[in-house]
Amino acid sequence: MDFESKLTEVSHDISLNSAPSVYLSTAQNIITELPEPTSIKDELGHLKEFSSKLKFQYLEQETRDKFLRLMLIEREQNITQAEVDALVEQNRRQKQSLKDIKTEMYSLIKSSEAVAEEVISLNRSFEARYGDVTSTLEDISNMQKELDNLLNEPENENHKALFNLKKIIDTEDIGLNEAINIATNALDQEALVLSQLEHNVEKTRIEHSSQTQVIDTLTEKLKKLEGLLQEAGNRPKDQQEPQQVFAQWLRELNMHLEKFIPMSLRLGESAQTLMFGPYQLEFDKELNITKCSDKTISSATIEEINHAKKEAKFWKLSHLLCRLIFRAEM
């Protein structure tokens, strides 16, 4: 809240008795509610204007009070020359006291204005330096990020170890032998990490080779099944036995896959359920998929398999099973 609005708010409450408290509270509120240092001079100007209005209000009320007291309360009495002289002397002393107070007030105002100028100057200097400091801090942060990125690159591992060793030597009082021991331990740790990485690479290579063999075996069986289906398709209708072909395919597939992943096949009267790992695939006697526990298999894929012809259905279903089995193994 600025001083003008505060003055408007309390103007109707200004009186001789309440003037000091209103002035002090208003000045205190203005001091605590300054939005920025650059407005100090404006607030001091409003305070000076408010002080002049209070002085005029005081003189007006004091004059009215004395006049009413003489006219309505005190009895008529003769005023002697001595009383006049006493009043003149009292008035002189009061004027001198008022002059001293005004001099002190003007001195305080001048001092306040000087302080305000200093505060404004310091605030401008602070704003200018604050921008420079902020920019410098951002540059330092960017340089630190670039240094960290350089040290984290694989080809700079040796430089990183030497850099960390130099920091230890610079920050701690250690001897040459201890520094060599620290460097040796760092190299041993790097060698251990390298050995673990080589072991993981070899393990991954073996797993990849095993999976490649599984894929080759399944591919061979699927090609064989495709040939059987083509032969079955060339037979007369009365000689086609797709259920026998399907049963033979399921037995061979189950025999080969059980070597690599736990799985089982549950045959029911109207449906078969193939279970492997966390997944279950249920389909009817026509090889139509009725339920799939893997939510990543879309309904469109299932519909495509279910509506395929018998020759293509075996192949699409085999492809889907391979996807699910390898996902369960991983």
TrEMBL record:
Pfam families: Sos7. GO terms for biological process: attachment of mitotic spindle microtubules to kinetochore; protein localization to kinetochore. Residues 50-120 form the Kinetochore protein Sos7 coiled-coil domain. One of its GO terms (cellular component) is kinetochore. This is Kinetochore protein Sos7 coiled-coil domain-containing protein.
